[in-house]
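Methods — Computational structure assignment.
A single polypeptide chain was analysed. Its primary sequence is given first, followed by the predicted tertiary structure written as structure tokens.
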Amino acid sequence: MAKNYEEEAKAILKLVGENNVDSVTHCQTRLRFVVKDRKAIDDKALEKLPEVKGVFYGSGQYQVIIGTGVVNDVYAAIAKLGTVNAIYGKDDADTAGKTSNEHKTVVQRLMAMLSGIFIPIIPVIAATGLFLGLKSAATNAQVLKLFGAVPSDISASLTSVISVLTDTVFAFLPALIVWSTFRYFKGTPIIGIVTGLMLVSPILPNAYSVADGSAKAIMLFGWLPVVGSQGSVLTALVAGFIGAKLELFFRRHMPNVLEQILTPFLTMLVTFAIMIMGVGPIVHAVESGMLVGVEAVIHLPFGIGGFLIGAAYPLMVLIGIHQTMIAIETSLLASTGLNPLITLEAMYGFANLGVALAIFLRARSNKAKATSMGAFTSQLFGVSEPTLFGVLIRYNFRPLIVTVLTSGIGAAILSMLNVAANSYGLAVVPSYLMYIYNGHALLWYTIVSLGTVVAAFVATNAFAIPKEVLTPDGDVETANAVISSTVSDNKVYAPVGGETVALDQVSDPVFASGMMGEGMAIKPAEPGINKVYAPQAGTLSVVADTGHAYGLTTDDGMEILVHLGIDTVNLKGAPFTVAVKAGQHVNQGDLLGTFDQAAIKKAGLDATTIVLITNSKSYARIEPVAADTTVQAGADLLAVQREDVKVESVEPA
């Protein structure tokens, strides 16, 4: 008899708040609520419900982790209640994606926009920072002295050539931002980059030079001052937005025979005219005022400003508003050549290292050890999600408090020492490359960052080691003394070929934290169409209509989830084909379907395939193959040991 999930549905809705829900959707593993007030929800109470494995807020949705198969029944019960807007079932991703975007708040949309615009240009800014650092090191008098040379020995021509590497990005930074903004708002990128180049044309006097009196503005019509937008990030954003919207308008209303020529012509002409005839200078003045305010906070006396920024940054990452800092950092770099903001924010990553290392060394739970070590390793290279979701907020927030305080203290010290990076985009271990331009900055950054690791490590040991990690997973000798068991081995085979990835390294914190079960991930090998095969023999309990996920119950009761990519439910099934149906029995190696990895990546999503044993607690041991190894489809992926126990005698605990 099928289980009735009506009571579970009522309990979930009561805790989320029926009046707090705009809509609810579901995928193969979780309920996805669009809510009015995320803070009004009691996470801990939800996690205590029988069918709830965990909760997570991301992508503008409050996600309640249920698990494959069961999530369909719970969702159906919610829809049957009819008290909230249950907008789709069985992965109607078209409706889900639209609703998710429509219900995003202004802040969420702003975060998505800034991320979409600035992330593509981060690599060249980071590379420019390295060029500047290497230039500074190579022209340093002490370094040259080691080779019997002095700075005057470097020819002016060589210095000029090196300057091409170090100065180009910042000289044309507004053009890059206009290009990326056009791309984000579905305009034609080449029109964007040409429009941006017009704003920084060497024919126009530099706005900063005009401001300090070393240059004069061009007086158009004898009364309108015209200057360039060199170094102005906000001006470039506004120009890109206006230009992209104008282009789309002209394309909709232009006759086809004239569209190819007149649309670019009018887009560039009108955008340039709007920007130089008042909008550009006004926006630039606003931006300059904002930067003055940010720098004033950074340099508050006694490191107060540094502490506030360093302590707030972990919380900004937690609620997903940290992307706003990229725009401010870019403006600082463009106007001053330095980025003190990322220096203060960076202490968050170093504090995380200390917390994760302390928990790893003290933990007696093998699962906690694996989670904290995975978090520590990924954090070394700036990936903080496994630490944030798998460690900091998993244990009553005490580790998070340590990170907040030690990050703030480290940032306070750096602000008093006036340490600043010369780029952004590098975190934790790679971040040291942003300070080699200045020996003083590199020395103090190294001392304070390592000190932050130590402080977080000591504080965690003293105040924040969770009791849960101090309990062993199980006492094997005691168990063997009271029970007899027959052990049978089983395996799960790779559904696709590619490079294996440890589960705690995947970009989805729900999968990475292990709350959905133990398993392994695979980066697919084929750049185009990949075939997906059954990882074991059994009955297909779930086949997503979108083709992005399969649930399989093996003949001996193992429950396996194959999830193709991260957040690929939002692709409406386009990159996927399905060759099977729910309820069908398959043999290991049977074709389940296909997916187009190139299409997934083109959509900006991760194509990594997740393979989970969702009833992991039923097994004594699950061992994945080594990470970073290449496997073929059908090769061993997970070794499973299950104990069928018969209790002979049980002593009281």
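Note: The first helix runs from residue 6 to 16.
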